[in-house]
Fold these 4 entries.
Entry 1:
Amino acid sequence: MRHSNLAVCWTKALVPSAITTFFTALTPPQAVHNSNTITLEFASNYSDSRFVCALNDDDPTFCSSPKTFINLRDGDYRFHVFAQSPSGGTDPVGVTHQWRVDTLPPSTWLAVNPTGPNSLEFTLFANEPNSTFLCSIDSGPAHPCTSPHTVAGLALGPHTFKTFAVDEAGNVDPWGAAYSFEFAAEAPIHTRITAFAPTALYTAVTNKLIVFTASQPQAAFLCSLNGSPFAGCTTPWEASSLPDGDYSFHVRAVNPHGVVDPIGDHHSFTVDTVAAVGSNVSPQASSTSVTVTWTTNEPATTRLFWGLNGNVNREVGDDGVFKTQHTVRLTGLSSNTVYTLEPAGQDRAANPHKTSRLNVRTLR
């Protein structure tokens, strides 16, 4: 600011104390506002002071308080004023007020992201920094809101979300940004086991593979084995080196909104690597037949190898029926002849078993 251009005719004298200048009121007071008029009131610690003012890079001129500027265009402004006392003292610093006039509204846009069943998260944007936002639902009143803004808990049906940016000067976007959507009843999700290997419910294989799917895309899964807590899993589910025992596998699908299939699907199987044990073998002979009975410690099929004089080169085929009490009757035999018998079979896991051979003589 140039002070030297002013023709000041006062007689210079010693100033008893430094002269200072200060603002007493600013209307409007904000550093950024949308008014093209401003009134600045100022004073000095000396009565009867006079003042020198300048706006932006204009030449300083004498002025009085209050000072009003009208019809200001959008832009940045700087007003500087300093006081001069009647005795010729001059405030070497003065005071300055800077402000911005902004009468243009901001522009608003938004992005939306589903966050749950009938729940949306809106990220709000404006083209002016430090903007705030107003939000409304279904043409209701707009209220201050922040970004991100979540919309949830509305009644089922169509809805419209609107947001309006508000810049630092208080200008509101008259159009804003809108997003129309519909909240509907959440479709249930279902889980289905589609394949497993081995396919037999009883198996001597200690590895297991289970494939499953969901009725909705992008689903996740929760799995449990033998009642263990459900935990995240993927398809196919695999296990190895399973010890002998009964197993129950349960899987539930979870949709992207976190809705869990309350029922899910399950598959039960048994790992059995130990063959059945036969005992209590009891033969009954007549002159032309032999009936042999035995028991097993678990359900197994019935089969009998037999022959003459220690050979078991003949067979009564496997009956395919699982039971623990077994009976086979051989007929059309020769009298007074020694026959060798070897009871056998397999359990439900296809583990084969044979009992010890025994010799039986038919009657005369």
Note: The chain has four domains: 21-101, 108-183, 191-271, 278-361.
Entry 2:
Amino acid sequence: MQQGEARILERQLIKRFGSLSEEIRQRLAQARPEQLAVWSERLLDGRRWVRFSRVTEA
């Protein structure tokens, strides 16, 4: 299920911001379900890639 959650978030990010770096793809693939949930919620609030990319640093 975790892979599916990461893949859905990846697709949403691509649709909203365009292509993703390999670093971001790796972070998504390695993230725990709890972190994926936080990022998914923040994606809804983020208007720009810079804002979202900052939250993935944690």
Note: The chain has a mean pLDDT of 82.
Entry 3:
Amino acid sequence: MELSADILVLQELVIKLLEKIDVLSSKVIILENELKNSNEKYALLEEKYVLSETKCSLLEAENLALKRQLGMNSENSHKPPSTDVFKVKKDVSLREKTDKKVGGQTGHKGHYLEMSENIDEVIVHFAESCSCCGKTFEGENNLGVVNTRQVFDMPSPKLVVTSHQITKHQCSCGHIELGKFPLEVKSKTQYGSNILTICNILTNECRVSLQKASQILSDIFGCSLNVSTIMTANEKLYENLASVEQEIKEAIIGSEVAHFDETGMRVEKKLYWFHVACTTLFTYLFVHEKRGLEAIKSNESILKDFSGTAVHDCWKSYFNFKNCKHALCNAHILRELNALIEQKSIWATKMKALLTEMYQKSEKGKGIVENPTYFLRMYDYICKIAEKEEPPPRKSKNGKLKSSKGRNLLNRLKEYQAEVIAFSQNQNIPFTNNEAERAIRHVKIKQKVSMCFRTFDGAKIYARIQSVIDTIKKHGLNVFQTLKNINLYQNFSFFQKG
């Protein structure tokens, strides 16, 4: 009986244990499901974490790029100086500092307004009354002139009307001959060469719009030249300058070194490009709807016919021309190096110091560098440092390899080493492309003043006239008198004697 009771107790315990096992099994199943859900959540969180890390890296890179963009100026990028409105400029000049004070130096002959012996008008100012007793002077007791001051001024501008008349003569043979009007006098009434030349200078050299030029002439001379008259004056000068422009092109093509550059401007509501080719004495400018190879190969371009050394800013299209040698503008390179130096780049600091030293050793770009082997070794050594310092290219969103700004610059310095240091091997090749920069800067000034060109013909006319004006100034000639003579159909050449 006792055994049976024990068996019953054990059976009850087994039943309870089985019930507990069922409960525990249920809990295990629940926990397994929770673990499975947790693992899935963990996998999702891990995936989100990876995505967040990737996004964070992209945002950091974008933030760095935006910071770099905000820090860009004319000293560390290709941005023009006009964008540095509120920036205090640092002294980044390549000139060595001296103990000389700013301004005119001792022994320098200054230029100032001197008293003239050629007097057009004399005005004598008499004393009217005595400041002591009040007596009025009536010409007596005049002791003569005691002091003289001169005022240099223009006569009051006014329009002068000249009447041209022709007569007829009867010869003894009975033939009647008429006199001839001057070649420039073609209409019943017209404006003369002086005022038309002023129109040319205002709308081209001074870069004002046609409407503003009309207003200026109306205010000063009281003549109401309408816009179409000013346009006609520019068109006439454009035609008269065809042979002069051809002379300029031939002179640049035949030169040993020429500078090339381009800049954009709105023409006919589209972006067109002004291309310049120039030397120290000649400037040629033309406008084209394209910036690259299509424009440089066009009939207007002269680079395809040039066989000297072309100095430019490393625009890829220029290197398609194998008929000439190439040299790069180191001012552009130094600006890019400055941007890297601001990011604590070691190799950029060394490369800038090397190029600056070569510039100084070459008599500031006017001579050649002695012992070039040393500088070439240093150049290669710095490029090897840059290879280790710059990060390798990485894939972008579109799958293409993208390099950093520093690596892009390094690749150019390695690929075009000979072109970068060309200035140090040839005294006729300058350190920078400033000649072309100066020659094309007026286009941006024109854009600021007049905003745009409404027609392509207007841009084309401006390019030719400005080419000649810039060349006239380089030759030290009087712009107004030279253009006036051309408007009067007088033959003109930059190579003519006298």
Note: The chain is about 45% helix and 10% strand.
Entry 4:
Amino acid sequence: MKNSSSYKITFALALLFVTYTTEAQLISDEHISKNFNCIDCNLKSTTLNSHKTLRINFHFISRSDGTGNFGESTNIFGNTSSENGYWISDLLINQANNYLANNVEMTQQLSYSPIPVEEIKYSYKLNGVFFHKNDSFYECYFAPNSLTNNIGCAINIFIFAGRSGNGAAYYDACWIGGIESSYSDYIANSNTWHLTRRANILNHEIGHILSLDHPKRSPGGLKSTIGGTQYTDNCNDTPTFMELINDGYSDPYQWCNGEYSNNIMDYSCQLRAFTPCQINQVHSYIECCFTSYLYGNYQNSHVQINNFSENMAYIAEIVEIPTGASITIPNSKKLYIDAQELIINGEFFVPLGSTFEFTPYGL
């Protein structure tokens, strides 16, 4: 990785016209458990973790006629609006980062083992927003590999209109449902809380991607029960079901009052709290297996821009428009570049209404 002071943009023999733009309720989920066993997650101090920023792509799948989800210039009801897919992406990622920047105390505490509140020290950077008109995937409720962008460099988040409250995570992608009902509640109540609560689910599903498991449920959401199967995660500071029962709790699965849990990996109306072990496990997993997803780290040293018809994002140390190439950003589309150096040796056109976003790493 190059030093952040080495960024530059090189224009050579290029015809260039550029406009720059700089810039909860969870019902059930399923995920592929990584079962990441971090030996020192319960031991090391979270203060030793450096802050980490992960790249995020948002995807909106609509019907083939463009209806049924947020679009590039429309709200979820198909009306031209500033409350479009870009708007909701910014709203979700900003609120998710706000939650990550403000850890809270665990509501479920064992009387003999208090859980401290420590800094989480990771966040997200919006890398790109993508729109897909596809009847086949409109109600698929998974993260289609064929629609993902920047594989191995960014987490891909698919936003669905239906399946309120549901979500699921896979290796480096996840989906979240219910955005239509949330937007309807926002319109009816003039309160963005109905939308930003989805940021809790976003953090929960990305928690799965970053190796975290449910503290007292199976990967598919089955409950631990007295005399039945006991489900646990890899952290000794997330109370198990039987630990809570033996400490006097009558119903550790309450949804939003009484004995409910606000842990990020539980199921409740408020998913906020990270324990020190969960924080350490996330950081250990990123350092072990997810470094190429970090803003400032590059899986590719050099890529060339090719012609494209929809929004496109490139991630590499050097991104180049080669000699002889003529690249035009299609009307109303966006080109995102995450690089330390952008080299333009060919022709590059950004027509009125299209957008080119490039912030050299380190700025």
Note: Residues 70 and 253 are 34 Å apart (CA to CA).
